[in-house]
Structure formats: structure tokens, C-alpha cells
């Protein structure tokens, strides 16, 4: 059994606090009866509605995917491009959603889940969940440019949060380099814009890690279920456990 507000949050109705407000104000019914008591316990067999609209109760699913290139990090795409959902096997019957996004041409680690509350917390800037990217860039960044990335670089009128940056390798003949960049913000195209801002356009980009999670054992286009311990650790990172 789970607390009603947690079930509502998990179903993506609202945050846990927002769900508590909905319950207190009488918007929620369980098996046809209005419930206003916080902490009421429910099961997956109970019929729950919010303003007379039933919510979908599913078992929580947590997936780690190695997103390939030319796949869209959405559930549906108006341009009929391949989505990350298209890569899932029939064994995933629940409706899962990407946690954040990776660009169409960006590869690497992407989480998918139907746990709306955890997804919202993982993408909330206040929890500063670190994500590490490996970028192939034009030119070879100098130490000063790498320091600029570490301190924060100006992008579209605002200075980014400090990042961890490292030159992994360089090819002086081709005038390209491999750079590791770890950030905890999640602005649109942020890594590409940060490297562009210091004069090194991105040629290829891959997300290598998300918090403590890595791509070990997961090939491009494949995915695996997170272990219960991994889910527990993620929730601890965002104070849900």
C-alpha cells in the first residue's frame, strides 16, 4: 500500500505537495468517496479520480537506455522520426517517458520512467544532478578556455553554472579534440552552446553518465531496467527516500 499523495505524484498528476493540496481541497475520490485525509493508504486495485477523471495506476518502471543517433527523445514525433519509445521491446507495456532530453544527433545515457515525481525531481535544477558528456570539437581548447568552462561561460545573456571540464585527447593534424564536460544544469543544447561560446563547435556529442549511472554493458539502441538499489540511490539524490 502507498500513501495517496505519493500515488498521485507517481502518476504525474502533480508534485507530492501539489497532490496534498488537491486531496485537502476535496478534488480526489477513492472508490467513489471523497478523501481529504493526507496519508490515506491505497493499492493498485483502488479506483482513484481527480475531479472525476480517473488516473492511470501502473507499476513503476525505470529504464536506462543508450540512445543512438537519429532518435528523438519524445513519445511522439510530428515529423514521423524514430523515437526512443520505438526502441523499446514489447515487454515494456507501461507508458514511460524520457527524463529530460538528448538532441536528435546526440547519443548516450537516457533515463525513461513512468514515475512522474522522480522524473520531475531529477530535472529540477536545485538538486544539481551531474551529467557527464564527451564531445568531439573543432579545434583544441586551451587551458584558459577549459578554465572558462569551469567557472561558467556566458550563453545567451546568462552565465552558466560552473562545470567540470577536461581535455581527453587532441588530434593536431585534424585540429580536433575530445573534451569531457560535466554539468548539472539542463538548458536546451547547453553543452553545445557552452563549447561554441569558447570557440569550439561540437561535431559529435555523447552523454556518458547520469549521476552515478553509466552505460556499462548497454550497447547503442539497447536498454536495461534499473536495479532496486539504483532506484533507491536516485531517490536519495533528490530526497524522495
TrEMBL record:
GO molecular function: RNA binding; rRNA pseudouridine synthase activity
Pfam families documented for this protein: PseudoU_synth_2, S4
Keyword Isomerase listed: yes
Keywords (A to Z) from UniProt: Isomerase, RNA-binding
Residue ranges constituting the RNA-binding S4 domain according to the UniProt record: 2-60
Enzyme Commission number(s) from the entry: 5.4.99.-
GO terms classed as biological process: enzyme-directed rRNA pseudouridine synthesis
Database matches in PANTHER family: PSEUDOURIDINE SYNTHASE FAMILY PROTEIN-RELATED (PTHR47683), RNA-BINDING S4 DOMAIN-CONTAINING PROTEIN (PTHR47683:SF2)
Database matches in NCBIfam families: pseudouridine synthase
Record-stated family: Belongs to the pseudouridine synthase RsuA family.
Protein name per UniProt: Pseudouridine synthase
Source taxonomy: Bacteria, Bacillati, Bacillota, Bacilli, Lactobacillales
Amino acid at each position: 500500500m502507498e500513501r495517496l499523495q505519493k500515488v498521485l505524484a507517481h502518476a504525474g498528476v502533480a508534485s507530492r505537495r501539489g497532490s496534498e493540496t488537491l486531496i485537502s481541497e476535496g478534488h480526489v475520490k477513492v472508490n467513489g468517496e471523497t478523501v481529504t485525509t493526507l496519508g490515506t493508504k491505497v493499492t493498485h486495485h483502488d479506483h482513484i479520480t481527480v475531479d472525476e477523471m480517473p488516473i492511470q495506476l501502473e507499476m513503476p518502471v525505470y529504464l536506462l537506455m543508450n540512445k543512438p543517433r537519429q532518435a528523438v527523445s519524445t513519445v511522439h514525433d510530428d515529423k514521423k522520426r524514430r523515437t526512443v519509445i520505438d526502441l523499446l521491446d514489447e515487454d515494456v507495456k507501461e507508458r514511460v517517458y524520457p527524463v529530460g532530453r538528448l538532441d536528435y544527433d546526440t547519443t548516450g545515457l537516457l533515463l525513461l520512467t513512468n514515475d512522474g515525481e522522480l522524473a520531475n525531481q531529477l530535472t529540477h535544477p536545485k538538486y544539481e544532478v551531474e551529467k557527464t558528456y564527451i564531445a568531439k570539437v573543432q579545434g583544441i581548447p586551451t587551458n584558459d578556455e577549459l578554465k572558462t568552462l569551469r567557472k561558467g561561460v556566458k550563453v545567451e545573456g546568462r552565465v552558466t553554472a560552473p562545470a567540470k571540464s577536461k581535455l581527453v585527447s587532441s588530434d593536431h593534424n585534424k585540429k580536433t579534440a575530445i573534451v569531457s564536460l560535466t554539468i548539472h544544469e539542463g538548458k536546451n543544447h547547453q553543452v553545445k552552446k557552452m563549447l561554441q561560446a569558447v570557440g569550439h563547435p561540437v561535431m559529435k556529442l555523447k552523454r556518458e553518465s547520469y549521476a552515478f549511472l553509466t552505460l556499462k554493458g548497454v550497447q547503442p539502441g539497447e536498454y536495461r531496467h534499473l536495479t532496486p538499489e539504483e532506484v533507491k540511490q536516485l531517490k536519495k539524490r533528490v530526497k524522495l527516500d
